[in-house]
Amino acid sequence: MQIQFKATKRDAQGTGASRRLRRAGQLPGIIYGGVGEALPVTFDHNELYHLLKKEVFHSSVLTIDVDGKKETVVLRDTQWHAFKPQVLHIDFQRVAADQKMHLKVPLHFVGDDVSPAVKLGGCMISHVVNEIDVQCLPKDLPEFVEVDLSALEAGQSVHVSQIKLPAGVELVLHGEGDPVVASALKVKGAAEAEGEGEAA
Predict the structure, then answer these.
(1) Pairing relation of β-strands 39-44 and 62-66?
(2) pLDDT digits over 115-152, tens only?
(3) Cβ pair 105, 130 in contact under 8 A
């Protein structure tokens, strides 16, 4: 799914100028990286606010039409107002078709309700990690990565190394070890009931 939206070049810089833009329903932002210079721009605040609510917006290659010139970017940073539902500033980074990029991608868990851990073991599945860091070319970027939990047994965990990644996508690990993504935890009541059954 290709997400495209418009922006306008912004000449006036500084806090006062940004405040005036926000009052007018505009959102100041910047596009940086790649071959071009950093480009200060403004967006329609409400349009971007609604886009930011979509999970896919955070893990997709986006197209920004800046006064008729298209920029290919990924979302890098947003600053939010402390208590109002308002975005104060937004950063996008240019991506090149032939250069690998690094981005967080959401995990979608499937099959936990049919897993032996839940059906037979009376377990609850705890999702420990909801996104992973990946590296790939823009064309290979997945909107999300699916984690199949249908074979999970009671007391077992799924680790990052067990996730099947799409072709062309590599995992980026920070530090040592193989982090747990999801685990099957015994529900207290079920464990106690089991213990009572054995005692009887």
Answers:
(1) unpaired
(2) 999 999 999 999 999 999 999 999 999 999 999 999 99
(3) no
User: How many domains are contained in the chain?
Assistant: 2
SS3 letters across the chain? CCEEEEEEECCCCCHHHHHHHHHCCEEEEEEECCCCCCEEEEEEHHHHHHHHCCHHHHCCCEEEEECCEEEEEEEEEEEECCCCCCEEEEEEEECCCCCCEEEEEEEEEECHHHCHHHHCCCEEEEECCCEEEEEECHHHCCCCEEEECCCCCCCCEEEHHHCCCCCCCEECCCCCCCCEEEEEEECHHHHHHHHHHHHC
Q: Residue written as tokens 């999801």?
A: 182
Using the predicted structure, report yes or no on whether residue 188 has a pLDDT greater than 80: no
Q: Looking at residue 58, which CATH number applies to its domain?
A: 2.40.240.10
Residue 200: band (very low, low, confident or very high) from pLDDT cuts 50, 70, 90: very low
Percent of the chain with pLDDT over 90: 78
Nearest CA-CA partner of 152 in 113, 191, 108: 113
pTM reported for the whole predicted model: 0.83
Query: Sign of the CA dihedral 113, 115, 120, 126?
Result: negative
Of 59, 94, 129, the residue that ends a domain is 94
pLDDT at position 171: 94
